[in-house]
Amino acid sequence: MSDIVERLRSVQQFGYRTDIGQTCHEAADTITSLRSQLEEARENALEEAAKVAEKFEAEYANERDKHVHGTPDHWMNNSGSYAAMDIAAAIRKLKEKP
Question: Which of 16, 88, 92, 95 would bridge with 53, disulfide CB 3.0–4.6 Å?
Answer without folding.
Answer: 88
